[in-house]
């Protein structure tokens, strides 16, 4: 069974996730740790739980989700995996990070590409890769059928949605991703978001003011 541990990092209050199971194999998703104390918080949990980090994945590559990529790559000897359509999003971060006040951003290279239909495996667990663009051009979500969870980055929030006014964003595309991919998941699926609290697919179908399914 997959265990989900979240951390809220950086001034954007981004949610970083560590997923692991009974084998103690783990994956890190969207490491937003920028300050050294944030990196230490992440590492302390991994060491205390005696986890073996096997993979590093970005749901998408906006600045707040990638601060810790290079740290995680070097610390745990893993490769960075993203959708190929978001490689340019990642490469752009180095140019604009100083304008946000982040003078010490560490750039990372993408090592592996993930696409719709891929299966992310670690320990005894599997996650299906869903392609859900709209907030970012190469945005993906990770869904566990067995555990009814979805790590969805900045696509769907509790009674809200990801912004679409950044480069590569598109409102109609985002709504289509939500309706066609996320709302196709079981209502009881717990959705872990890139910011804020978790929610469920059933709750958002009924109450989300941007994308609820109206009768």
From TrEMBL:
<dbReference type="InterPro" id="IPR051453">
    <property type="entry name" value="MBL_Glyoxalase_II"/>
</dbReference>
<dbReference type="GO" id="GO:0016787">
    <property type="term" value="F:hydrolase activity"/>
</dbReference>
<protein>
    <submittedName>
        <fullName>MBL fold metallo-hydrolase</fullName>
    </submittedName>
</protein>
<dbReference type="Pfam" id="PF00753">
    <property type="entry name" value="Lactamase_B"/>
</dbReference>
<dbReference type="GO" id="GO:0046872">
    <property type="term" value="F:metal ion binding"/>
</dbReference>
<dbReference type="InterPro" id="IPR001279">
    <property type="entry name" value="Metallo-B-lactamas"/>
</dbReference>
<dbReference type="InterPro" id="IPR036866">
    <property type="entry name" value="RibonucZ/Hydroxyglut_hydro"/>
</dbReference>
<keyword id="KW-0378">Hydrolase</keyword>
<keyword id="KW-0479">Metal-binding</keyword>
<feature type="domain" description="Metallo-beta-lactamase">
    <location>
        <begin position="13"/>
        <end position="195"/>
    </location>
</feature>
<keyword id="KW-0862">Zinc</keyword>
């Amino acid at each position: 069974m997959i265990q989900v541990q979240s951390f809220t990092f950086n001034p954007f209050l981004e949610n970083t996730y560590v997923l692991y199971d009974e084998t103690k194999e783990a994956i890190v998703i969207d490491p937003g740790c920028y300050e050294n104390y944030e990196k230490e918080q992440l590492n302390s949990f991994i060491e205390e739980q005696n986890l073996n980090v096997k993979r590093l994945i970005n749901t998408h590559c906006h600045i707040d989700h990638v601060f810790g990529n290079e740290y995680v790559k070097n610390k745990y000897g893993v490769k960075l995996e993203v959708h190929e359509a978001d490689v340019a999003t990642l490469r752009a971060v180095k140019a604009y990070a100083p304008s946000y006040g982040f003078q010490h951003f560490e750039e990372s290279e993408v090592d592996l590409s993930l696409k719709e239909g891929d299966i992310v495996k670690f320990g005894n667990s599997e996650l299906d890769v869903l392609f859900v663009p709209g907030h970012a051009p190469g945005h993906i979500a990770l869904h566990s059928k067995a555990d009814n969870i979805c790590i969805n980055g900045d696509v769907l929030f509790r009674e809200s949605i990801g912004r679409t006014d950044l480069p590569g964003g598109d409102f109609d595309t985002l709504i289509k991703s939500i309706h066609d991919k996320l709302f196709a998941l079981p209502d009881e699926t717990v959705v872990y978001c890139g910011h804020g609290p978790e929610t469920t697919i059933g709750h958002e179908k009924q109450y989300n003011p941007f994308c609820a399914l109206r009768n």
